[in-house]
Amino acid sequence: MQNDNERSDGKNVEKSEDTNNEQPVLTNRQGHPVYDNQNTRTIGSRGPITLENYQFLEKITHFDRERIPERVVHARGAGAHGFFEAYGTVGDEPVAKFTRAKLFQEKGKKTPVFVRFSTVIHGGHSPETLRDPRGFATKFYTDDGNWDLVGNNLPVFFIRDPLKFPDVVHAFKPDPVTFRQDAQRIFDFISLSPEAMHMISFLFSPRGIPQDYRHQDGFGVNTYKWFNTEGEGVLVKYHWKTKQGVKSLTQAQASEIQATNFNHATQDLFDSIERGDYPEWELCVQIMSDDEHAELDFDPLDDTKTWDEEQFPLLPIGRMVLDRNPKNYFAEVEQVAFGTGVLVDGLDFSDDKMLQGRTMSYSDTQRYRVGPNYLQLPINAPKKHVGTNQRDGQMTYIVDTGGENPHVNYEPSSLGGLKEAPKAGKDHTPYVEGNLVRQKISRTNDFKQAGERYRTIEQWERDDLVFNLVSALSQCNQEIQERMIGLLTQCDAEYGQHVADGLKMNSEKSEAAQTM
Ligand code: HEM
Fold first, then answer.
1. What value does the mean pLDDT take over residues 430-449?
2. Of 81, 122, 146, 152, which is the active-site residue?
3. Is 74 a catalytic residue?
């Protein structure tokens, strides 16, 4: 009988590496050279094919499993490698005054990073011209282990309680029956969520469609903490400021690009890195003392609010350059797993409820999406020693090699197992007390910052914001339209009036409405 790897047409077979041929040869995953990749093994040239055809079965069954579940949100993305370079200072002061996180301490210290940019709502092959927040997630491979900063291109969010996240996502995702994104479903939810007015005023302005991933800022959005060697903490917000300048698209410009290219942002990032035009961002923080700040008209833990930059200036702490494209999209961009819980010593959570809700969600979904050993994959593993005593599970690839004695996978032990690490300073031990309740924060102030945003953007941006809201709302029923106008009027009377005027003019469903 013919050998499995023999070509049936009798042509010369390629030699394997073992026979000193310099050209890399095709093998299967068992390392067997593949001599014929054109013809399955069959009984006679017309078939049938045989079941023991290992080469064919391995190839096709692996292909059958090529897709893993998409991210439930942020499914479409592009990524790149690069580095973060610390300034050693925060504004004019040494960074050590506020945080002992090692990656920031020394001027010029470089930390490798991987960044993934994304759109939020639609699937993995959806157009990159859609009105949607953009994800901006950064993994810092620090000497102390990984730090993930999982942010967006807009500084605020739709909701302030994590319990509402599945609802806001369902409202924006396609209708479960028609499978179309539906403005009526979106604004049904939004018009009953006054805290979303600030975010909506960003999203429906030109900032809701960035020109590409390089021309956008990034924001941590949630409030985090820093603490120093004395264990003293401050509240911080993170900002990535693009050195390329912020550039956005109007709906008309986006539609024009989408007509010919639905991958334009992925292409722009890849091509710019290939030609050596490396995108760069500066990382800045805003700092606030760690208390409730009763003097402010908003709660510093509320992610629907920005912190006034006059009062809490942006303090630069380093810069990031992206200078290397992934070698393989799936292995790196698809399988990378970021989470808000991934912090290093000197960085901490605040009591921001959204942040805590998010922290639970990311590693939970990644155990499902990628698998329980997702942290063993090269893109997710820290670039330092790992010693955990965690063992086994699907696709175990590495056994941590920390302890001297491979028989000891528990702690404490006197037989050469892993030991607890020494502390890097005093613990940060915030005091928490209160009744267990289901309650909104008291300073909701849902409209003021949205109104300020409306008044401070340029006239063409205001016009675009009103146009886009009118386009979307003209697809909604009158009750939803009225609720939205009521909310927008509370943000700014002119804002509400302009949207109302637009809707009256367009009470018939307009052609423009199709752009949503
Ligand atoms: C309670 C609120 C939130 C929940 C429960 C949540 C949950 C999730 C989940 C489950 C994923 C998919 C992760 C994966 O499959 O690896 C994800 C991705 C992501 N989320 Fe959130 N999210 C929330 C709010 C936010 C906010 C406020 C931001 C922006 C600051 C944000 C930014 C991102 C980004 C950038 C990604 C994509 C990360 C990547 O590129 O892999 N999320 N989120």
1. 94
2. 152
3. yes
